[in-house]
Amino acid sequence: MSKYDPLTRYLKSSDEEIIRLTFEDIEDILGCPLSVSAKTYRAMWANSSSHLSKFWTNINWKVNHVNYEGEKYVEFIRSMPSKKNDALKINIPIVKALEVPPLLKNLHELYELGIIDRNIYDSKKKVLLDKIR
Question: Is the whole-model pTM more than 0.70?
């Protein structure tokens, strides 16, 4: 058993798509302090090169952001939709043509990050493009 198993259980049991945990929250979940490296180096929270990454990537979560300034926190995001949400619900209102490129860029970034799969990307892109026609 690893000291990070409680974090895995916490993320796995959540219904949220994005979870922001302060370092103190994580320490409370773990029941022990984080290492100095985890509190200092972003690489400790990398999704692929860190030895810790298996504790969230194996259950379809990714670290989206680590903040070391002000309130220190780690933001986790589901890399696959939860079982309760077959697809990410992205409501796209009617938009102006000038707003489309940034929205498409954001949608593409979600796809590139592995947050949404190709089918969701294609369907949401089509919906977005249909809104401006």
Answer: no
Cα–Cα distance, 83 to 77 (Å, whole number): 15
**What's the pLDDT at 133?**
53
Alpha helices in the chain (DSSP H): 5-13, 23-30, 36-40, 54-57, 100-112, 118-131
69 and 9 within one domain: yes
Whether 60 is in a domain gets the answer: yes
Domain boundary among 51, 78, 105: 78
User: CA-CA distance, 4 to 22, in Å (whole number)?
Assistant: 15
In a domain, 20, yes or no: yes
Mean pLDDT of all residues in 47-72: 88
Instruction: Give pLDDT tens digits for 19-29.
Output: 999 999 999 99
